[in-house]
Amino acid sequence: MSALEKSMHLGRLPSRPPLPGSGGSQSGAKMRMGPGRKRDFSPVPWSQYFESMEDVEVENETGKDISFLRYVFFNYSYTFRVYKSGSEGPVLLLLHGGGHSALSWAVFTAAIISRVQCRIVALDLRGHGETKVKNSEDLSAETMAKDVGNVVEAMYGDLPPPIMLIGHSMGGAIAVHTASSNLVPSLLGLCMIDVVEGTAMDALNSMQNFLRGRPKTFKSLENAIEWSVKSGQIRNLESARVSMVGQVKQCEGITSPEGSKSIVEGIIEEEEEDEEGSESVNKRKKEDDMEGLPSETQNLLLFLQTKKDHPYTWRIELAKTEKYWDGWFRGLSNLFLSCPIPKLLLLAGVDRLDKDLTIGQMQGKFQMQVLPQCGHAVHEDAPDKVAEAVATFLIRHRFAEPIGGFQCVFPGC
């Protein structure tokens, strides 16, 4: 799942290869780039990877039409942001991991569209990205699965095209819950990316510790992108430059001085090293100037300065979603195996398989492919390899036609 679910697998991930320009992968530790030219951490727009964007209006979770109530009484709407590409072939409905957004699929979208005839619909799940719903804190598996079904109905009516659900981490779990509940009538295939019930449940206790170790604010989008790459959350700079835009927002919503004290630590650029001494002196001078002020005034001034210097924060507070974690993953393996459609499981390491999936894989109940040298965000770290695996799966089952001379690459397991 994004940063949240990444923590779930920390104890069982294979050793990470060195990141380009990074001295390590531990967030919060000081990291510096190696010698050479400075990399470009500036954000790039979604339009470089997707053809169009749409805010899909749906009914609320009760299934009742809310259009009259919305405009006359409550003045709210239920809209789900989707990014689209392609004009023919099956629809690949992409569900991101927790804390991420549909933009995490941007580079993968460009890769898959060039290999097979398909249509892409990448969805911002509730509470994430640019999706707007009244009860955005309800991230239960049941609610989010219903959201997926509602979006499909709103976009395609009673005759939806053939659809394959593809989900990463939390999104993979929601894809399985959606499929098992028969909420997408035209479903032809299912793909989970790096989510397994056994390892997820084993790591529940470590999630909060991981989240507490993340920076809470960033001084700029560039700073957030730089952190994501240097910390190892996203190992592909190209993907990070578009994906992180959907993970952070400006800090207008911060109301607590105490909650805004955290700053990004551990990212050092060579160009700034000579300035560190003078910055430390200035910082100590500011602290001395505040000593005689009441504590409430000091907190307020610190809050305002932090908000000015670090205007970006996470779009969603993942720590507050803890009550839903168990429901996302418990029983997931058996639900996945019971779905009566062709299934694909993509993993960053074979050690992630739990007992149920190991038996199911030996019985040929699903196709599996391991993509080593990747972190948890497999589709961002290796978008071309994931696109090859998905394209091969689609062609193998005759769901889609190859384009551009694409040759299937059949997995070894």
TrEMBL record:
Q: Where is this region: Disordered?
A: 1-37, 269-293
Keywords carried by this UniProt record? Hydrolase, Serine esterase
- Is Hydrolase a UniProt keyword of this protein? yes
- Which reaction is catalysed here? [phosphatase 2A protein]-C-terminal L-leucine methyl ester + H2O = [phosphatase 2A protein]-C-terminal L-leucine + methanol + H(+)
> Which EC numbers characterise this protein's activity in its record?
3.1.1.-
Query: From start to end residue, where is composition biased (Acidic residues)?
Result: 269-278
Among InterPro entries, the record links this protein to: AB_hydrolase_1 (IPR000073), AB_hydrolase_fold (IPR029058), PPase_methylesterase_euk (IPR016812)
The active site is formed by 169, 194, 376
Say yes or no: keyword Hydrolase present. Answer: yes
Top-level EC class as recorded in UniProt: hydrolase
Instruction: Please list the residue ranges annotated as the AB hydrolase-1 domain.
Output: 90-383
Q: Which GO terms describe its molecular function?
A: protein methylesterase activity
Show the PANTHER family listed in the entry.
Answer: PROTEIN PHOSPHATASE METHYLESTERASE 1, PROTEIN PHOSPHATASE METHYLESTERASE-1 RELATED
- Similarity field: Belongs to the AB hydrolase superfamily.
What does the UniProt function comment say about this protein? Demethylates proteins that have been reversibly carboxymethylated. Demethylates PPP2CB (in vitro) and PPP2CA. Binding to PPP2CA displaces the manganese ion and inactivates the enzyme.
- Give the quaternary structure: Binds PPP2CA and PPP2CB.
Instruction: Give the protein name, as stated in the record.
Output: Protein phosphatase methylesterase 1
